[in-house]
Structure formats: structure tokens, C-alpha cells
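Please check this.
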Amino acid sequence: MYNLLALAIMKQPENLESHGRHIILDYVGYIAPQKDDGQWILEIMRDVIANSTAEEVHSHVTQFDGSNSPLGFAAVVVLDESHFSAHCYSELGWLAIDCFTCGSADTESIVKEFTDILQEKIPTLRTTQEKTVERFLHD
């Protein structure tokens, strides 16, 4: 059975233009380089956004202590152009990010800079999935 996203992609007319791009990535081998790793990741995300043409509106991180959710964090940088988020299961070494921008912001550059920084700091980190979806399709 097809999921809804796959069906939507299959029904996309070829002649439509997009006004946005959404990139999702999954990583394994994430090893927290410090105790408060959610804040550390959020700062990297904010620095990457500051180096881009995207504009930060708000940012937030919640660190999970394992009492209700597995150890890890959720972090988000809300953008004028949409968002950049990260979710991590620290004990399992899993990290997922997604970056959605519209207009002229360069989603690929944001994701590449973020990944390059993380791979330099965490040599065990490996990308297991990367997908791009064109968004705000229009005539």
C-alpha cells in the first residue's frame, strides 16, 4: 500500500514549479559530544542559519531525561521561510533533521553545512537517508 506522500508525488503534474524545498535526513552513530547536547545542536543549527540567507524568527530546544521519553532532545529554529528541526534518541545514536525553506533560501546549503560540521565533530556519524521534496507547487 502506498503512503500518502508517495501518492502525492506520483500525482504531481510535471509542469508545476516549486516555491520551496523540504529536505529530511536520518543519521546513525550519533554520540553526544557533551552532556547538554540538545543545546549544542541548537547552537550549530542557529549558526548555520545565520550563515545562510534564511532568517531566524525563534528557536527552542527540549532535552529529554528519559523519564517520559527516551533520552535525547528536540530542537527547532523557526524561520521566516519555514523551519529547521532536529530530533534525537541519544542512547540509540539516532538523529533526524528536516529543513524546509521557501523562496530564495538555499535549503541544500543549510543541510550541507550542518552535516559537514557534525561529521567533523562526530566521526562516527553516518547519513542513512536523505530525501528532498519540492513544496508549494504551483503553475
In short: The chain is about 25% helix and 40% strand. The longest strand covers residues 126-135. The radius of gyration is 16 Å.
